[in-house]
Design brief:
Number of helices: 8
CATH architecture of the largest domain: Roll
Number of strands: 7
CATH superfamily of the largest domain: Electron Transport, Fmn-binding Protein, Chain A
Largest sheet: 7 strands, antiparallel
Helix content: 25-40%
Low-confidence stretches: none
Order of helices and strands: HHHEEEEHEEHEHHH
Number of domains: 2
CATH class of the largest domain: Mainly Beta
Strand content: 25-35%
Shape: globular
CATH topology of the largest domain: Pnp Oxidase, Chain A
């Protein structure tokens, strides 16, 4: 990519563009979960997890389940099941190489978010796996996060986006089907409808 803009290359220069963070914003980062963080996690059915690849590039992935699908082991540790996916194992592989993780928890209809930063490890320890059995099916593994900091994130991003406003929701037919997009991207000769049927079957049969 051609360099078409002037880049800010130092934190000192970056800090001249923005006001200094208030002391309250700095102090709100807690070293462990408090009652409000715990309640937020208990109500959350969805999060995004950020990790870094061995070459230093970044990755982010969604995780979801029932409310409280992430279990609080204690004020300093979380456990999250890994359910069937595409088997790329991007997040898990990244953690094996570099354990630092960032979690962003959402609650539908609530504009505040919860950020949790720490380190993660992957386990198949039977007692941990047993916590997350659904319909007789255990998870494929369990991620245990050691918390370094946790804090509530302000509402502005979700207020600007009106993410929970149904009037702003985009009709699904605004985009091609997932099957059609995959067909185009992979240049497949299979009809898009058959790909879509297969994707829906996998979604139905391999959710847990």
């Amino acid at each position: 990519m051609t360099n078409i803009f002037e880049r800010i290359g130092e934190e000192r220069e970056l800090r001249t563009v923005y006001r200094k963070a208030s002391q309250g914003v700095i102090d709100k980062a807690l070293p462990a979960l408090d009652v409000h963080c715990r309640r937020f996690i208990e109500l959350s059915p969805f999060l995004c997890i950020g990790t870094s690849r061995p070459d230093g590039t970044a990755d982010v992935s969604p995780r979801g389940g029932e409310n409280g699908f992430v279990h609080i082991l204690d004020d300093g540790h979380l456990a999250m099941p890994d359910r069937p996916g595409n088997n790329r194992l991007d997040t898990l592989t990244n953690i094996v190489h570099s354990p630092a993780v960032g979690l962003l928890f959402f609650i539908p209809g609530i504009n505040e978010m919860l950020r949790v930063n720490g380190t993660a490890a992957i386990s198949t320890e039977p007692e941990l796996m047993e916590r997350f059995v659904v319909g007789g099916k255990p998870p494929l593994s369990v991620m245990v996060v050691t918390i370094q900091e946790a804090f509530l994130h302000c509402t502005k991003a979700l207020v600007r986006s009106e993410l929970w406003n149904p009037e702003r929701h985009i009709p699904r037919d605004t985009l091609p089907t997932f099957g059609q997009m995959i067909r185009d991207q992979l240049k497949l000769m299979v009809p898009a409808m058959l790909i879509q049927v297969g994707l829906k079957k996998d979604e139905r049969d391999n959710l847990y």
